[in-house]
Amino acid sequence: MGATINGIGLALPEHWVTQDDATQHALATSLASNGQRNFAARVYSNAGIMSRHSVLLEASSQAGEPVQQSYYSPASEEYRNGPSTAERMESYRAYASTLAHQAASEALADAGVEPGQVTQLVTVSCSGFYAPGFDVSLIQGLPMDAQVGRTHVGFMGCHGALNGLRVARMMADADPSACVLLVAVELCSLHYQYDWTPQRIVSNSLFADGAAALVVRGADAGEDGLAVRDNWSHVAPDSADAMTWNIGDHGFEMTLSPEVPTLIDQTLPACMEQWLGRHDLTVETVRNWAVHPGGPKILEACESTLKLPPSALAASRATLSKYGNMSSPTVLFVLRELLRSNGPGPTVMLGFGPGLAIEAALVG
């Protein structure tokens, strides 16, 4: 056996907000017409989310009380866009390493691995930048050996943890003694947009904060872990504008075209069938589907085009409902839920990101 996942760790900010309260906050924060306000209320209501966590919250939701946060001031004619990108990156620096440390510590404990045993550290994030980054904070804080190898997978979007898993698998396959710690952390709530264009409203309604970590080991660790069998990647043709993630003056700006479900329908079935066939699998013989819950329509598109039973994406929908879209860590939340509820077996991890790019991993 080659690379195996031997530990999973998850972390969330302390405080959470209900989707109803998030809706009221959005309506109270920004300048908007009645039509825009009504549209936003519908989008938030249809997002498939009950609650989300954020590092910016000062208290969790309480019935009848406004959202407890002071970061985003109400918009005015003089203050129309919220904090600058520099201010948001200072907040990323302040909060990212704490969540990363919590997730990493839980994954190491789950694997029965001491920090000093880690030989390679792979970090993943698309929601912030600073250097030295949270990788150095992890090395010094856990602590790990100062000579641990470091690799950062940056700005790849919601499928970033799968790119990180590809790197970790290759490291573990190349070195049977390798012990790789993969840590993904995202603070998406730092990029709330005051813009009332439909795509900004959709992104505001979905995203949240969280972190997740994996311990991936080489063959010397034995056969107790979850085998990481393969990774797969595909960039859909003529889709560069379907999903984008750009750095603006007031945070990072996402666009999400309504054509994304159509692109998934056109691209995914044939590619997935071919890839699974290389492993003597079919869609029907896959036990678990850990699909990144980018939003209800993306899950519906995957379910429809792959002809999955209604129960197949229950863990993805439950994760979206409870935590929102945390970008790259989210698929690892789904994976742990599936392993606990369904048990091990052939499992496809699947995510979508700017490109439109599709990333997948076969584990189990």
Automatic annotation (TrEMBL):
Residues annotated as catalytic: C158
Protein name per UniProt: Alpha-pyrone synthesis polyketide synthase-like Pks18
Family according to the record: Belongs to the thiolase-like superfamily. Chalcone/stilbene synthases family.
Top class in the EC scheme: transferase
Annotated keywords: Acyltransferase, Transferase
Any GO molecular function: acyltransferase activity, transferring groups other than amino-acyl groups
E.C. no: 2.3.1.-
PANTHER family recorded: HYDROXYMETHYLGLUTARYL-COA SYNTHASE (PTHR11877), TYPE III POLYKETIDE SYNTHASE A (PTHR11877:SF46)
Domain annotation Chalcone/stilbene synthase N-terminal: ranges: 3-220
Single GO biological process annotation from the record: polyketide biosynthetic process
Pfam families assigned: Chal_sti_synt_C, Chal_sti_synt_N
Keyword Transmembrane listed: no
Segments forming domain Chalcone/stilbene synthase C-terminal: 235-363
